[in-house]
Amino acid sequence: MTATTTDTPPPVAPKAPAAKPARARMSVARILLIVAGALVLLSAVRVLTGADQLTSAGQISASLGLAVPIGLAGLAGLWSERAGVVNIGLEGMMILGTFGAGWIGWQTSPWLGLIAGVAFGVLGGLLHAVVTVTFGVDHIVSGVAINLLALGVTQYLAKIFFNSGEAQLKGGNPKQSPPVDSIPDVTVPGLSDGLSSIAGHHWFLISDLAGIIGGLITHVSVLTIFAVVLFIATWWLLWRTPFGLRLRSCGENPIAAESLGVNVYSYKYAAVAISGGLAGLGGAFLATVPSHIYLEGQTGGRGYIGLAAMIFGNWRPGGLAMGAGLFGFSDALQLRNGGETVHALLLLLVVLLVLLALWKAYRKALFQAVASAVVAALILVWYLVTDTVPEDFVGATPYVVTLLVLSLSAQRLRMPKADGMRYRRGQGK
Questions:
Q1: Taking the CB of the first residue and of the last residue of the chain, which one, N or C, has fewer CB atoms within 10 A?
Q2: How far apart are CA 267 and CA 279, in angstroms?
């Protein structure tokens, strides 16, 4: 017998699905071009409006100081959410940090106060981890509860520790601690004075650049420099080490991470504890650098603004730093200069909205382009018919900027896929 043959061809292996084109990352040259364009635009607004404080060394120095606690809060949120745990409790952990720094700082030294602030923040983070990771409580509910608990506990403890004995004699009361010694700052000798002289001429672009650099090298707190180091260290740890890869995998796909031998619970606990420590450090900064005391209500919602900065930065340290700087700049603007300088900022906002409208029109997003153009026209009318911004609105400037930035940056965001999801060991089996 002969074997029968067939003309049916063998099955073809299925083709792999076409890979989606990777989104181009921001190159260093592109980032520098954006920074240069922003500087030119800011300088032009300064010249047109006469608001010389926009780029003064004092404004930049104040912006840097106000950006640090926001940036540390955002960095805290980044650590937690990269591991898949939403941390709305950052505000409460910052409150714990302010109290710890004020309580220990006035009795010993500001350095021990900083350590105490970090430790108090870590306790808040561990509490959040126990409730969310171990018991599976909704992350938002747990975070809100920690905010309320931290506020109540610190108010109660302040009445006990600051309103009697030696603390009261040194200026303590139920709402604040006695003064804490200052933390050293750094100034580059010679260069700072030279840049200040150039900035005083109010030349286009050159004086603005001198004012910005001068603000970054004059009376810079050691803690501010440490915060910059923390941003760099976070980028390196999370994106350049095996530890960071495992931690981020817990926020993307914890079941797959577990199948590869990653102890998901341990990494989540570590991330949320680090998150609490960074938030506590942000609170300790407020109590030791700008004010030198613990003060009730000192955080002023900076934990929430830090979360907004983290979202603006697309859960990455570089974008987060830019967001924190923007919010710090707007906060310093309203605190130092009042309604007239904020009024000049309206013109900058008009230009940015016009550029956004042109970009959306180019991308065929006509509704968004028209909406941006209409808002730009309304703000321009407001700018032309007024000379200043009402004081009530001036105080809300940082929060308005927060809402505006989130609304404009919400188009290209990508949060960790398992962020906020409940995880149980072995659930993938």
A1: N
A2: 18
Q: Nearest 5 degrees, angle CA 50-CA 60-CA 183? A: 150
Rounded Cα–Cα distance for residues 343 and 25 (Å) = 35
First to last CA, the chain: 51
Residues 188-198: what's their mean pLDDT? Answer: 84
Q: Say how many CA atoms lie within 13 Å of 358 toward its Cβ.
A: 6
Q: Quick check: 89 and 124 in contact, CB under 8 A?
A: yes
- Using the structure block, give the residue that is written with the tokens 């520790």: 161
Q: Say if CB 324 and CB 310 are below 8 A apart.
A: no
Say what the pLDDT of residue 337 is: 65
DSSP state, 133?
I
What are the Cα distances from residue 246, in Å, to 236, 267, 417? 14, 8, 15
Structure tokens at 32: 């520098």
Closest to 42 in 3D by CA, of 352, 310, 292:
352
Nearest alpha-carbon partner for 389 in 333, 343, 337, 331: 343
Q: What contacts 96, CB < 8 A, 6 or more positions away?
A: 117, 120, 121, 123, 124, 150, 153, 154, 280, 283
pTM score, two decimals? Answer: 0.88
